Prior knowledge:
By secondary structure, the protein is of the alpha+beta class. The chain has a single domain (2-91), classed as Alpha-Beta Plaits, CATH 3.30.70.120.
Amino acid sequence: MKQITAFIHHVRSADVIDALREAGYKNISLLDIKGTLKPLGEQELAYSAEAGVVISEVQLSLVCDDNQVDEVTAIIRKTGKIGPNISGWVYV
Length: 92
C-alpha cells in the first residue's frame, strides 16, 4: 500500500476528484491549505509579517495498492495541471 499526497489548485480539485472516482478510487481526503510561492527578501521581511506570496491550495490524499501508483499519479498530473511547473506537487 502507498499513500499519495498531492497539492493542487482549488480550480482543478473537482476535476481531479471526478477523474479519480471514475477510475474507481474512493476514500479521498481533502484539506484546504495555504502555501507560499517565493519568500520575501531580507529587506522586505523587516517590514512585513508575511513570509512571501501566499496561495490557497487543496491537499489531496489517498491510499492505493502498489501496482496502482502509476495510474493514480497520472490521473492527478493530467487533470490537476493548470499551467506552469509550479502549479502542483505529487508525493508517493
